[in-house]
Design a protein that fits this description.
It is a single chain. Helices cover 27% and strands 21% of the residues. The chain contains six helices and five strands; from the N terminus they run H-H-E-H-H-H-H-E-E-E-E. The strands form two sheets. Strands 1-3-2 form a three-stranded antiparallel beta sheet, with helices on one face. It has a two-stranded antiparallel sheet with strand order 4-5. Helix 3 packs across helix 6. The relative contact order is 0.21. It holds the Pfam family CAP.
């Protein structure tokens, strides 16, 4: 991710170099802003697509749902993505943030995430439940 962000271009890297990883990008016209602050802003911006554009009750990715502009949100919460790598790059006039997710999400016809009780299916080897966040944590 960092190698791509160092190009200081607001464009996704070619899918062929991502090796099956999904990707979210964010930029702000604010050079040299605290990187922790930028990280928070980027995730909030992606997640806020839910409030701005909505997802149907059945929570399935369709072309229509994707066309609403929720692809960043859905990649953040995609139930099968279990690895993430993020970076932030200060450039001359802009600051860029990006995250890559594996396996990638946003597959047409697939469930974005299964609704249920938090941590009710922490079935990966050695996983534990982070009760505060309601997430399964891998060792």
């Amino acid at each position: 991710m960092m190698e791509w962000l160092q190009k200081c271009k607001y464009a996704h890297s070619p899918y062929s170099v991502r090796h099956g990883w999904g990707q979210n990008l964010f930029m702000v016209n604010a050079p040299k802003v605290n990187k922790t602050k930028i990280a928070g802003w980027s995730v909030k911006f992606w997640y806020d697509e839910l409030a701005r554009n909505g997802v149907p009750e059945e929570n399935v990715m369709t072309r229509k749902v994707f066309g609403r502009g929720i692809g960043h949100y859905s990649q953040v919460v995609w139930q099968n993505s279990n690895k993430i790598g993020c970076g932030i790059m200060w450039c001359e006039r802009m600051t860029y943030a990006g995250c890559e997710y594996s396996p990638a999400g946003n597959f047409i016809g697939a469930l974005i995430y299964e609704k249920g009780e938090p941590c009710s299916k922490c079935d990966c080897k050695g996983c534990t439940c982070d009760k505060e966040d309601g997430l399964c944590v891998t060792p």
